[in-house]
Design goal:
The protein is mainly α and 204 residues long. The chain contains 9 helices and no strands. Helix 2 packs antiparallel against helix 3, helix 2 packs across helix 4 and helix 5 packs across helix 9. InterPro entries: RNA_pol_sigma-70-like, RNA_pol_sigma-70_dom, RNA_pol_sigma70_bacteroid, RNA_pol_sigma70_r2, RNA_pol_sigma70_r4_t2, RNA_pol_sigma_r2, RNA_pol_sigma_r3/r4-like, WH-like_DNA-bd_sf.
Length: 204
């Protein structure tokens, strides 16, 4: 599904949710729950809290459906809400002012179960090894763009940074990863073949 079709589909879901359509809310939940759990886990490394955070964000969307005023597109709104709650969890649980820049080990895939696909596991490890060499905040920008498909403007809104800053991060990320071509290009082209399987095995 293209980005434009996704946005239109999400808009239609949101409009139906505002009218109390529970089936549309269930469709939204099914579409984003696992992806948001993975994103939250990437930020604060606690699977149980990731599930609670995402469930809470989605539940509040339903509870407050009659008063929703979302200025971002729905996908950006959800990722930003989960990011904020995940960082608040870190601050509370660690008793310090931890912020996104201080996160030092943001993983692409965090699966407690063994991956049955050797190829998937090898690709995942290679991607992690390359991306984890980047500064933490650049890792998140890179993954939001190249894996989640967010545009620079949307990433800026999610992370509360300027679009120009996002662009600078991506320029440096691409410059950095270019030294791994063609290896990195081959790995990234294979990503979509195993990512869905990895996601489906998480948070079940």
């Amino acid at each position: 599904m293209s980005t434009d079709k996704n946005t239109t589909y999400d808009f239609d879901l949101l409009e139906k949710i505002k009218k109390g359509d529970r089936k549309s809310f269930e469709n939204l939940f099914d579409k984003y729950y696992k992806r948001l759990c993975l994103f939250s886990y990437n930020l604060q490394h606690n699977r149980e809290s990731a599930e609670e955070i995402v469930a809470d964000v989605l539940a509040n969307l339903w509870i407050k459906k009659n008063a929703l005023n979302i200025s971002l597109n729905l996908k950006s709104y959800l990722f930003k809400a989960v990011k904020n709650r995940s960082l608040n969890y870190l601050k509370t649980s660690h008793g310090s002012n931890i912020n996104l820049i201080q996160l030092d080990d943001i993983e692409l895939i965090a699966n407690e179960k063994a991956d049955n696909s050797v190829l998937g596991s090898e690709i995942r490890e290679q991607i992690d090894d390359i991306i984890k060499l980047m500064p933490p905040k650049r890792q998140v920008v890179f993954r939001l763009n190249r894996i989640e498909g967010f545009k620079y403007k949307e990433i800026g809104e999610i992370m509360n940074i300027s679009e120009r800053t996002v662009q600078n991060h991506m320029v440096e990320a691409i410059r950095f990863t270019s030294q791994f071509y063609p290896k990195f290009k081959m790995i990234m082209s294979s990503l979509m073949f195993f990512l869905a399987g990895c996601l489906s095995s998480l948070f079940i």
